[in-house]
């Protein structure tokens, strides 16, 4: 082996070492940035909704820091991801407690940016999927949400004048306006901004903000025609 070849190999080794060091630094920097972003996101969710998603065991110290800062009860920390399969005991009987946590997680993880007020039929639709499809009932769902309330995981379950249950998955202060609107919805399941403003003595802005939240969470749908204008339809509250 000539001197030139030895020098070339030495340079290649040095270059590879340098590249490896750069990659390690890049990974470290990326990990740090991700952790910072995740911490900020968790803090934002905790502040806004009073819940912590703690699926990453490596973030134990960060989770505890956020929990103390925002006074989050330990019951409102999601530590395990519940699957549809784990809800069925030996593939047959429904584990109501796990069904309860499955419904809670789906609301938290899928709707954490738009609100957490759902009717019981809405909760049922969220968990009556996949391997659980047609294997759980509305009665199972009601038992599940009542477990969440009993264990202080969720703040409130309220029976509306229509007889349908409305479940607040986030602290009530974030959903009281929406609950007030649901109490106004009549048996045809339709309401307008004007109806809300008149009944509750609210401004148009406040009424539309709460109504839009109900649309975002799919509790309500917007229907609009040239003749009748804009209305909000609540499928799960329609009784006739």
Automatic annotation (TrEMBL):
SUPFAM superfamilies: Winged helix' DNA-binding domain (SSF46785)
A Pfam family: EAP30
Gene3D superfamilies: Winged helix-like DNA-binding domain superfamily/Winged helix DNA-binding domain
InterPro entries noted in UniProt: ESCRT-2_cplx_Snf8, Snf8/Vps36, WH-like_DNA-bd_sf, WH_DNA-bd_sf
Similarity comment: Belongs to the SNF8 family.
Protein name as it appears in the record: Uncharacterized protein
Species lineage: Archaea, Promethearchaeati, Promethearchaeota, Promethearchaeia, Promethearchaeales
